[in-house]
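Support request, priority: normal
Reporter: lab tech (M.K.)
Component: structure prediction queue

Hi team, I submitted a job for MFS transporter from Saccharopolyspora mangrovi yesterday, and the status page still shows it as pending. I've pasted the exact input below so you can check whether something in the sequence is tripping the parser. The sequence length should be 153 residues. Please let me know if I need to resubmit or if it's stuck on your end.
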Amino acid sequence: MANGVREPTIDPTNRTLSPSATSAPIRRTGKQFFSRKVVLVTCLMICSVCVGLTGMATGTVSAVALMTVAVGFLMLAAPAYWTLIQDAAPKEYVGSAGGLMHGLANISGIVGPTITGVIVAASTYAGAFVLAGGLGVIGAVVIWAGVRQHHYR
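Reply from support: The job had stalled in the queue. We restarted it manually and it finished. Here are the results:
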């Protein structure tokens, strides 16, 4: 414990990193759902903007740097998705909600490359990156405006 701040440790009972990036804002706001949503939306927004800017990058180094930042923020947001599902879904449906989320992600993994190929054949890779970044920004706005906490017990 340095300066009164607890170091992240691994909890042997559930093997999660605690406190994580999603729990730091909880200590400041006292509102778990809001702070997790802020982390998720912020990371998704930064990731999406970086992906969109990758399509406009003029050099290889800048394109790789933007994609590296995008993937980093995407990985930072991943734990927030699961905690958001656990907060928003009824306890008995958390697994089903997670399965639905993974199913949709797998479908997008099939459809995405096909649509990217069509876009690249019609124009350039820049159009595909800008479209992906724009869709990510729209997704972040939908999460911010549409996801509400329900108090199921």
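Residues 14-19 have pLDDT under 50 and may be disordered. Strands lie at 9-10, 17-18. Let us know if anything else looks off. Ticket resolved.
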